[in-house]
Amino acid sequence: MFEPNSFLDLAGRWLLDSGIQTPAGGVARYYRSDAETHCRVSTEITGYALSAFAYLHGETGQARYLEAARRAARFLHTKAWNQQAAIYPFEYSEDGDQAPALAYFFDSGIIARGFLALWRATGEAQWLAAAAETADSMARDFGPASAPHPILLLPEKSPAPRHGNWSYHPGCYQLKSAMAWLELYEATGEQGYLSGYEQSLAQALETHRRFLPGDDDPHRVMDRLHAYAYFLEGLLPRLDRPACAEAMRWGIQEAARWRRAIAPTFERSDVCAQLLRVRLYAAAAGVAELDFEAAQQEAEKAAAYQARSEDARVDGGYFFGRRNGEMVPHVNPVSTAFCTQALEMWRRHLEGLPLPSRQELI
Fold first, then answer.
1. Which of 106, 139, 208, 270 has the fewest CB atoms found within 10 Å of its own CB?
2. Residue 9 C-beta-side C-alpha neighbours within 13 Å
3. 333-350 helix and 43-60 helix, angle to the nearest 10 degrees
């Protein structure tokens, strides 16, 4: 079982000091502990880290987190943003290595929510403007809000062929990114943003039961659980609606069932954390009774992925997962952010404290 508070401090130190964030502010997709190398900087992962730094600043009051959040935001806004195409590319290379010329709808939503998290933390208007610029690209470039093109080829912004895994296809998981539109509506009152979220919500509710299992390979189903949990997270603003509450109850049970079935051969740490977070939010909203035993198991599973090492590039971060009993040697910033927030929420629940607002969900 995790030790209260220590897990958060260790994870925060890894995010700040391990080198996963470059001096310029971008954040690598993950660190390979076996090869001792960082993957290329990802705009999506930098957006997630931006949200995580803002969250950790709110939890601890430590100025270093806010400084790291501003570095990430400045990197995204001044370096990663493709000025000519007015869009965020998939990855960013600082050493001349050619990154794939792609742009993802999902990534843009995560980046926009990161800017909004920093705006809420600081009140600095430039980050609200950056969020709006990103969200406007989502609406302008990716097609209809109800079924956006998942990936665009750059620079022409044409839809990428729909083959391969779930991320190349439309799906209910896009609702997580559509939350950026809703949060911008809440900040600005602009009805177009609200309409985008509501269209995405309607389509997700109509299609979500067909998303799982979605593949004959159980390991790929585990990956799809990660995506399906994004749908459940995207429901959080509308749990007062009966259809959304019912989808949340059904979705938690279905995702948990598949996780338990597949976990002996492949388990992702982020799936454990995502399930725990939505369980706690759903229980707090009064739409699903908390399965305490399942939640406790997910907390213990998530906590077990935190690394302990004399190597500062590893210590305190969270591994991506475990295959056939072996830890996958990827120390992952998104796994770290999700697991840390989930465990802090579990601690709050056990102590009878309120959960973070759904806008603070990383």
1. 139
2. 4
3. 30
Strand order in the sheet with 321-323: 266-268, 321-323, 326-327
What is the number of other CB atoms lying within 10 angstroms of the CB of residue 352? 6
Long-range contacts at 292-297 (CB < 8 A, ≥ 24 apart): 294/256, 295/346, 295/349
258: Cα within 13 Å, side-chain hemisphere = 26
Q: Quick check: pTM over 0.85?
A: yes
Question: Where residue 95 falls among pLDDT bands split at 50, 70, 90?
Answer: low
DSSP secondary structure letter of residue 173: G
Give per-residue pLDDT as tens, 302-357.
999 999 999 999 999 999 999 999 999 999 999 999 999 999 999 999 999 999 99
DSSP code at position 36 = T
Q: Copy the structure tokens of residue 172.
A: 């209910």
- Which amino acid belongs to residue 355? L
With 0-12 / 13-18 / 19 or more C-beta atoms within 10 angstroms meaning exposed / middle / buried, residue 308 is: exposed
324: which 2 tokens? 């056939």
pLDDT at position 98 is 60
Question: Is-contact 2 340, C-beta < 8 A?
Answer: no
| C-alpha radius of gyration, the chain, whole number | 19
| Longest CA span, the chain | 53
DSSP letters for 220-247:
HHHHHHHHHHHHHHHTGGGTTSHHHHHH
Domains for the chain: give ranges and CATH numbers. 6-360 (1.50.10.10)
Q: How far apart (Å, rounded) are the C-alpha atoms in residues 53 and 212?
A: 32
360 closest CA partner among 121, 80, 99, 66: 121
Angle at CA 334, nearest 5°, toward 330 and 335?
A: 60
